[in-house]
Amino acid sequence: MINDNSERYGSITRFFHWVMAVLVLQQFFKFADRINEGEHWLGDTFGPWHVSIGAVILILAVVRLLWALKQKPQRPINPGFDGVIAKIAHRLMYFSMLIMPFLGALYIHGKGYPVKVFGYELIGQPADEVPWALALGEWHSPFAFLLIFLVIAHIAGALYHHFIQKDTVLKRMIG
C-alpha cells in the first residue's frame, strides 16, 4: 500500500519517516565536536558530512511535507489531547528541519567560509566575516537542541502509546 489510510501510514510515508530518522540521528553526531575540543572520532567521522546531509534532509523535508499534505484527508488521526500534542511536536520538527539548513549555511558564511554541499560550492567565500549572517546562523544550535528534545519526546510518545496505551500508534509507522 503506497498511500496512507485511516488505519496506517503507507509505504511512501514510512520510507520518508525512517530515512529521515536515520539522517537526523546521524546529524546529532555533530555534537561530538563539543567533546574533547572537537577531537573525537564521532565528529571526525560524521562532521565532514554534516552540511551535505543537512541539505538532503531539507530536500526530503520539503518533499515529505508535500506528500503529507496530499495524504492528509486519509491519514490516521490521533484524537484528544495526545493528538494535539503530537500535531504541535510534528510541526515544530518540520519547522526545525526546514529552517536549520539555512541557519547552518548562514553560520558558515558568516564565519567567512564558503558553503559546500557534496563538494559543490553553493555560496562563495566572503571577503570577510559577515556579522548579520553569523548572528542569524547562531540560531542553528538552539534549533538543534530543540530538535533533539522533540525527537526524544517523539520516541517516548510512540513507546508510551505502544507499551502503556497499548494502541496502534507505533504500529502505523512500523508496518
UniProtKB/TrEMBL annotation:
GO MF annotations, alphabetized: electron transfer activity; heme binding; metal ion binding
Location within or outside the cell: Cell membrane
Cofactors demanded by this protein: heme b
Keywords assigned: Cell membrane, Electron transport, Heme, Iron, Membrane, Metal-binding, Transmembrane, Transmembrane helix, Transport
Topology in membrane: Multi-pass membrane protein
Domain Cytochrome b561 bacterial/Ni-hydrogenase, chain residue ranges per copy: 8-175
GO CC, any one term: plasma membrane
GO biological process, one term: respiratory electron transport chain
Domain of life: Bacteria
Transmembrane segments: 12-29, 49-67, 88-108, 143-163
PANTHER family to which the protein is assigned, alphabetical: CYTOCHROME B561, CYTOCHROME B561 BACTERIAL_NI-HYDROGENASE DOMAIN-CONTAINING PROTEIN
Record family assignment: Belongs to the cytochrome b561 family.
Protein name, UniProt field: Cytochrome b561 bacterial/Ni-hydrogenase domain-containing protein
Organism this protein belongs to: Methylophaga muralis
